[in-house]
Amino acid sequence: MRWPWAAEPRTTTAHSAIIDIGSNSIRLVVYGGPERIPATLFNEKVLAGLGRSLAATGTIDAESMAAARAALLRFAWLAREMRADVIRTVATAAVRDASNGAALITIAEEAGLTVEILSGEEEAQAAGHGVLSATPDADGIVGDLGGGSLELVRVGKGRLGERVSFPLGVLRIAAIRARGAGELDRTVQSLVADAGWTGRGRGLPLYMVGGSWRALARLDMHHTDYPLPIAHGYAIPPHRVTSLRHWLTQVPRAELKSIPNLSGGRVPTLDNAAAVLDAILRHVGCSTTLVSSYGLREGLLYAALPAEIRAQDPLLVAAHDEGARQGRFAEHGDLLHKWMAPLFPDDDPAAVRLRHAACLLADVGWHANPEFRAERGVEIALHGNWVAIDAPGRAIVAQALHSCLGGSSDTPEPIGRLADPEALAIAQRWGLAMRLGQRLSGGVATPLQRTDLRRSRGKVELVVPTRDAALYGEAVQKRHKALATAMGMGAALVSA
User: Fold this and answer.
1) Model pTM?
2) What is the tens place of the pLDDT at every residue in 302-340?
3) In this structure, what are the phi and psi dihedrals at residue 199, rounded to the nearest 5 degrees?
4) What is the side-by-side order of every strand in the sheet holding 490-495?
5) Three-state secondary structure along 131-178?
6) Axis-axis angle for helices 391-404, 421-441 (nearest 10)
7) Rounded distance between C-alpha atoms, residue 493 and residue 472, angstroms
8) What radius of gyration do the chain's Cα atoms show?
9) Residue 473, SS3 per DSSP
């Protein structure tokens, strides 16, 4: 896939806030930065459990209502103090379905908020857009598991397809399962069949949205000793989901709470989240799962963007923003990528995209202690809040930055566990080319614009105009030779 790219993505200093009143939690998220993929400036949730009593009484209980009041008053105050230009408040299944949902709306209005009650259709649409905002080439079924409902939507070719909402929120599952063994599976089978979704996901991934499913992924990451703490993009095959279900019936809750990065508030819902996921995979027929950290809230922002902004590559937009904030010269990454491209004519479009991202991040270690610049680059590549990139891609960018920022010639852990050696060897050469370009140019534009780097006659040739011969100093010569050696070539200076 060719990724559209604007050299200077629109960045705004305006802040936008979304208050999401869900069936399990109420959350405030404040965003800022690039319009295409805004950064999270603040994120706080309260597990109010609005949908906890719905199955039994059809109402939001008094304890949950009190927790909601406190959360909404605090979140409205914070959003205003953070000077959010837009404060959007949305409510989903619990408020939609509860007989006393209007009382919660009144509480929100008293806090100065205007609440939009999303229909199941609108929830599904927002979740689908959220996945597409982070994974533009997503092709499969989006499943958004909330406290009160489960939405499914078909996504592909950057668009939303059919969608459906089921009363299968994680807070409703216990009541269904209490009716007898196998009741949840029969309920899911019936709902899916009646909606015409049986087998609809065969051969396709299920993109999992929602805190309970993310918590389930973190549990599996712990079990498999996954080397990254990043849940986004993590895959759980169906047989692992079944294994997790069985394990959860036996493990003490105290052991679950000791698992790193696993929210204690999600522990009570893990078993039910695994049970409904197992049933959905079986009846919808998806071949695997992929976690999406982007969902309803990000989808609401994405849907409001003009088409030309939506078309931008979210990875490159985010890398451009990060490089501009942490580097010395904002335009340097794009120029560096263009300058070194002739040296790597065999890179396919996917590799070119990763190489471009690495170049945009080439200066992120500048403010670190010189002894730790390489480690800083690796940390940003592996652990940054990137989207539209998988774990091997993160490792490839990390290897390029490690080499660019003066790391040793080896592959530091855990990079070697995430990508194949051949791809990492190529990334190392990218890093050495980036390192040469940075030393040659000093980080400014003109030297890269007036020189050329190319392959010719078995050599890595650096073409420098005669009038600029002084650029080719001792440090540049050393980096030129290091790059040529890594590529199995000689180094040659050509005067133009």
Assistant:
1) 0.93
2) 999 999 999 999 999 999 999 998 888 777 899 999 999
3) 70, 5
4) 452-456, 459-464, 490-495
5) HHHHCCCCCEEEEEECCCCEEEEEEECCEEEEEEEECCCCCCHHHHHC
6) 40
7) 8
8) 25
9) coil
